[in-house]
Amino acid sequence: MLSPVLSRRAMLAAGGAAALLPGVARAQLEQRVVVVTSFSRDVTTPFATAFEKAHPGTKVEIQNRNTNAAVAFIRETRSSPPDLMWASAPDAFEVLKQGSLLAKPAIDTSGIPERIGGQPTNDPDGRYFGFAVSGYGIMYNTRYLRANRLPEPKEWADLTKPVYQGHVGISAPSRSGTTHLTVETILQGEGWAKGWAQLLEMAGNFAQVSDRSFGVPDAVNSGQYGLGIVIDFFGLSAKASGFPVEFVYPSVTTLVPANIAMIEGARNPNAAQAFIRFLLSPEGQQILLDPKVMRLPVRAETYARAPAGFPNPFTNPSLGARVSFDNDVSELRYELLNSLFDRVITFRLKELVEAWKAVRAAEAQLAKSSTAEGQRLLAEARAKLTTVPVTEAQAADRAIAGAFRAAKPDQPSAGRQAQFEEEWDRAAVAGYAEGKRLAEQAQRAR
Amino acid sequence: MSAAIARPRRARLRVEASLSQVVAALLVAAFLLAFLLVPVGRVILTAFLDPAGGFTLVHFADFFRTSLFLESFWNSLYVAGLSVVFASVLAVPLAVILARYRFPGRALIATLGVLPLVMPPFVGAVAMQLIFGRNGTVNLLLMDWFDLRLDLMEGLNGVIFVQSLHYFPFILMNLAASLSNIDVAMEEAGQNLGARGLTLLRTIVLPLSLPGYLAGASLVFVKVFDDLATPLLLNVTNMLAPQAYLRVTSVGLADPMGYVISVILIAVSLAAMVGSGLLLRGRDYATAQRGGGGLSQRRMTGQGKLLAWLFVVPVLFLVLAPHLGILLLSLATIWSFSPLPDAFTLAHYGTVLRETPQFLTNTLLFCGIAALIDVVLGVVIAWLVHRTKLPGRALLDLAAMSALAVPGLVLGIGILRTYFDTRLPGGDSLATWWGMLIIVLAIRRLPYALRGATAALRQVHRSLEEAAENVGAGKAATLARITVPLMAGGLAAAFVTSFATAAVELSATLVLVTRDVDAPLSYGIYIYMQSAAGRGPGAALGVIAVLAVALCTWAAHAVAERERSRRARTSEAQEAA
């Protein structure tokens, strides 16, 4: 844990030295700065407008893409890249950094704490910078809950309760960097086996697994379903826009920085650096509290002007502190986790939900008249529905996880991705059918 | 020896293809090669490469070994097939009413019949959910009144429901154009032989309109088979197109399986296209007389009128419900878990017009040019295929139609890979230049125009062209002065289809647009719809898109009608003389 901090200090020193050189700091800004971002117009427009006001003569050009598409775009446009990458998911920045696609600009981060909620705010190598932090939690539609007489959830475990059957939505981790982090956080916070058991039981209540991050808050806003597993600003900004929704942080959450980075070979390096500095400045941080933006600033003093009830990681130490997020573990099984979630939940949601309905019915029956045989069968059924066909050790095995990486000839792998996926799919289908059968038996057991 | 064989073949070539034909074919081929075949080929090649870069078929073997993919494949076929059936149920009666009867509100049906195609991405999705979704207006009211919930938007059946509503205009427009091209003399001949009413419809009218119907039906099949947006909106992932999309966008561009699925999508779509062509092979649908200007339009009986209204009104309500939803959404302050919005405002239109007026002008410009390119290319290709004996002409048709089967995402990535390093004089990349967006839109929508042009051309009898040539007109002059004017109605429909669908294209646009100022409406909607506060402005842009397209459709319809009445008048004048 020591070395990244040290190298971060070294980076800071280097950045400070560079800032002292007048030629670098005072360079004439270019006429435009091209920003690739996954953020919506509502988020980007206030920043772009304020920056253009502070630096007349420089125009901010926003290119809007989802995170994965942005990464692909930066890879494909190596010869003439955009200037900045501006997005939430830190892992996307890690991917860009590994691909030597990020520059190392001279940015002074003094006044911004090195860690917020236990997480490093900036890249230790100085390639990307956290400008806001986000946590994950549960967003719910208050009208919907009232109409369906549902209790308000507090913890992830609440979402496994039978009362929420068919009322919960999530986006697939393979499709949404933010959900990926949520799932990884639950797995690290609860442990692999217990975490999956909780996720699979929660999945028994899923109404949908959406293919885009915003699909979930959108459905909760319009009341298609009542509760969604989302990143905080989706909930906070919807509430600030007047929708009848609320947002809660469960205790197993982690605060993750949303980042900005300069692309290697950027055509407008001076304007790009000025934009990063602006984002991290007190004026830039203040914009995060705009009702349409609603993100947690990285400067403690900005919270003084936040609306009442706004979450503050600087005064509420429990926020995000319970889980210490291990980036290395996450990085190694990143693709595997995406694929596994899709196999056992996204693509087999119908089968899984059916099986859980049978379990709920059996539970209700046994609650009325319990039999030993019934309880035994029920426990077996639950076991079938709460295990994944991959162990934690296998997920950490480079030979297996490597099969899900973009292929490199020199890396040995234990098989092709397609083979594993077919195996998992079969295991899931068979397991859910068996679980359903056992639950139905349990219900009939006398 | 070989020279002796080669000479007659060359001689045959010389006889059967004129210089202008060869030049036209080469130009079209070069265009398709540069902007469709090469870029897509570069992407698809990935499906056949092993990690070391060698050729392999193992990925295809994996596809057929994977139960999820096989299941997806059958699901896609099932959904596409049933969507054609339900779309036909909606479209055929409407087309018959439209073409054969003097029905008050014909223009209304013609215009409103196109609107479902113009379902702006995302807003359309949100609106459909707000109206038909599990807690949409319809279900909230049903639950209030009858304690009943209709799962209209769930699973494969939900996809069929939405797709039939969305794509039935393809059949309606092609069939209506086809019907109105049938010569009244044919019908009269049938009547003279004693056929009346339904018999006449069954034995004369419908068979003669088969090219139009099949053109529309095969389009519906292929579109549904390839469509991504609707299954994704309904969160149905066990279909082929979503599987390909999810692979490419989440596993990454290097993953071969996404491209394998793309190849299979393309293969099935081409098979459907070729199959519908084979059904028409060896039959002649052209009619020589051009005087009457189509079927005689008859007055409806009172009972018929009642029946027609009883069919038309519910259908229109059904297909226009999403547009009503968008309109409400664009005027709503907050709309959450209630049958109607909480309150209404015009503020969203203000936001859109103040912040982003360029989206509308860009769309009109880009899509107008693209649709024009499509009609020109469509006529040239149809003419080369059906009126010349140029060797390899069928390949041109196949290549152009294959654009239908290429997912927009694949085309976009291909264009980016092929042209990004080519610089324009200003230093910008050719791939992200707005002109390229027009070309890509034209390529994507060319199949619609080509189908329309082909169907229109099939109904122009060769004898008319031969007559022109006999009196000394060259091939080109004949095409320009005889054939194209005779095809005008069909071409107007082709232009509208291309234009309207290009206006809401998103997948390729999303890859290629780099600057807000060069972006069309669909991109703007996408950007707005990514946030809670952007729903209203996004919907407002959607309404503007729908209105713009509706206006253009109405104008094209008016042009076609005027052309038709002009022809009819001319022939009357001739008869009088």
UniProtKB/TrEMBL annotation, chain B:
Keywords: Cell inner membrane, Cell membrane, Membrane, Transmembrane, Transmembrane helix, Transport
UniProt xrefs under PROSITE patterns: ABC_TM1
Membrane-topology annotation of the record: Multi-pass membrane protein
Keyword Ubl conjugation annotated: no
Keyword match Zinc: no
The ABC transmembrane type-1 domain, residue ranges: 73-272, 360-556
Segments passing through the bilayer: 21-45, 77-101, 108-132, 152-179, 200-222, 257-280, 306-335, 363-386, 398-420, 432-450, 491-513, 539-560
Subcellular location per the Swiss-Prot or TrEMBL entry: Cell inner membrane; Cell membrane
GO CC annotation: plasma membrane
InterPro entries from the UniProt entry: MetI-like, MetI-like_sf
GO biological process, one term: transmembrane transport
Family statement: Belongs to the binding-protein-dependent transport system permease family.
Protein name stated in the entry: ABC transporter permease
Organism: Teichococcus deserti
